[in-house]
Write a structure and sequence with these properties.
109 residues, alpha+beta, two-stranded antiparallel sheet, 5-stranded mixed β-sheet
């Protein structure tokens, strides 16, 4: 379990640890930095939470509430677009479609 704190350091939730945003870097699963892991989940109030894991002794896993845009960017940057097909990420899928799809200007014939 990982504690979720707000910007004031107040405990707002406790979530299950996951590293569903990790990817294979050729030697290990990580979020792009050795010994670091990244996961995402959603709270009942609709807030998205990034879960930061660590393999380093003396450091602790932590979680933070992020904006929808930050959550979407974490999914995109780690290459886990398939998460947008899950029901709890539907709002992020809609944001993805509005923000990134069909942005190319069509050529006139």
């Amino acid at each position: 379990m990982v504690k979720v704190v707000n910007e004031f350091g107040d405990l707002v939730a406790v979530v299950k640890y996951n590293n569903n945003l990790d990817f294979w870097d050729g030697r290990n699963f990580s979020c792009g930095s050795p010994g670091r892991h990244l996961g995402i989940t959603k709270l009942k109030d609709g807030s998205y939470v990034l879960i930061h894991g660590t393999d380093w002794q003396g450091e602790r896993d932590y979680a933070e509430i992020v904006t929808d845009e930050e959550a979407l960017n974490a999914i995109i940057s780690t290459g886990h677009i398939e998460l947008l097909e899950k029901k709890k990420y539907e709002p992020l899928k809609k944001l993805y479609e509005e923000k990134y799809l069909n942005q190319e200007i069509e050529e006139d014939d």
